[in-house]
Amino acid sequence: MDCPNYITPTGYAALRAEYEALFATERPALVDTIAWAAGNGDRSENGDYIYGRKRLREIDRRLGWLSKRMKAAKVVDPAQQADRTRVWFGACVTVADKDDVERTLTLVGDDEADAGAGRIGWNAPIARALRGAAMGDVRRVTLPAGEREYEVIAIVYPAG
Predict the structure, then answer these.
(1) Which domains are assigned to the chain?
(2) Helices (H), the chain
(3) pTM of the entire structure?
């Protein structure tokens, strides 16, 4: 990775919770099911065994990915942001386009992004364009639908 994997404390806790649930609960239960299915005889036509092995590979792959992401994570608490007059990691930003359509976006880590909920990844095109912007600044963003300009209307950080 060429840039740090910034993440909020809440996002890191979610990654950790998913890892713990898979490792401590789902994987051991699946291993028991596979052992039971293997004891039933012919494995070539045993659906429980075949599906269980496939699901176990998926879980192990996800555990590896989560482990790598957590090791590379740099937890940043937005409430501790020193410069609250500009848009940085964790900011909740209200922007308006040329038609005065307002959008509120929260800049979060790429692993916790959810565009439908207004949480955009730190490395998304609009987030990169907004970095360092102050209220009243106009930023141009190149999106798949073309270029758009957004004016920063408000910048809010969580209370700390």
Answers:
(1) 5-75 (1.10.287.180), 78-156 (3.10.50.30)
(2) 9-21, 27-38, 47-72, 125-130
(3) 0.82
